[in-house]
Amino acid sequence: MASTTQTDDDGAFSAEQYFATQPPSPSLDQDIKKVREFAQRQLREGRRVVLVTSGGTTVPLELNVVRFLDNFSAGTRGATSAEYFLKAGYAVIFMHRQFSLQPFSRHYSHSTHPFLDFLELDSAETEPSNVAGSDATRISVKPSERKQLIEVLAAYKAVQKAGTLHTLTFVTVNDYLWLLRAVAQELSVLGRSSMYYLAAAVSDFFLPRQRMAEHKIQSGKGSLHIEMDQVPKILKSLVDEWTREGFVVSFKLETDTSILIPKARAALARYGHQVVIGNDLHTRKYQVVFVSPASSHRRSSSQKADGGEESYIESWLRIDPASYPQKEIEEDIVKELVQLHDSWISMQ
Ligand code: PAZ
């Protein structure tokens, strides 16, 4: 816990204090200039925009970083959802952990479906070792892979042509926080047409720059003790300050399912956003729970219709595990969110 810095009531850094003391990455201004151009174009062209965050953040332990804390997230949820949002007509800002999965190319991940395995050298009589470097050698795609490749490639090319996908990368939790704030501030021009789909697995703790070792931490002095500070409650600032009208969807991951719904409700009560999607680490590809205020689409938890306690509605989305990966739960998640976003827009 921070001992010498201004903190929130629960001991976390306040967002204000965080941004006053932790410097942004040198590329932030350039990144945001491009986001501004993208947002302005989508505004002119009358498209809704969704910010999809995806993948895990790191927490560096040294300034010249050799060691860092990381988490499990591969970016499957974010990359898959981004594709379904594009299909639904949204423009997507895909803010993801460097080298994590991305829309379209995710189908050909080096670990699960390496593309070299489904390419073939054309002439059957030619020894692969003899054709290296020959311009005459043709390459083809295995017949069993063609249908899917054509579909993925066609969708990818169409999105490129329409200019509806903009990609940003982060590595550390600090990169993530600075980017999220700046992107949200840029997207606020879109008002209710913007959605925030916060699927990244963001560290709850970080080591302030002022307390990091400059060089690689040396062994030989016994065990290592590191005291981390809490990352500020950024959703509060997002909802109350950076984007007052955006439709905000956060994710809650737990490994103890009994606390999933109470934690999701607590997040809604605390931050006053629209939806929390709860998921369990082991079943996240097959089931999620949507939790939203009963008096749905209200901006702030303090605005109760009857002045009383807010109540919440839970609804589960499930797919048959046997149908995966042909069927992806993100298709249903996005479909549901597009409907909720429609209602949110029509409420203004
Ligand atoms: O990236 P992935 O597909 O492996 O996992 C997705 C997820 C579990 C990180 C995401 O659905 C999620 O719950 N994100 C928020 C995690 C949290 O901070 O609680």
Automatic annotation (TrEMBL):
GO terms for biological process: coenzyme A biosynthetic process. Signal peptide: none annotated. One of its GO terms (molecular function) is ligase activity. SUPFAM superfamilies: CoaB-like. It comes from the Eukaryota. Residues 1-28 are annotated as: Disordered. InterPro entries: CoaB-like_sf, DNA/pantothenate-metab_flavo_C. Residues 48-103, 173-284 form the DNA/pantothenate metabolism flavoprotein C-terminal domain. Pfam families: DFP (PF04127). Keywords: Ligase. PANTHER family: CORNICHON-RELATED. Belongs to the PPC synthetase family. This is Phosphopantothenate-cysteine ligase. It comes from Obba rivulosa. The lineage of its organism: Eukaryota, Fungi, Dikarya, Basidiomycota, Agaricomycotina.
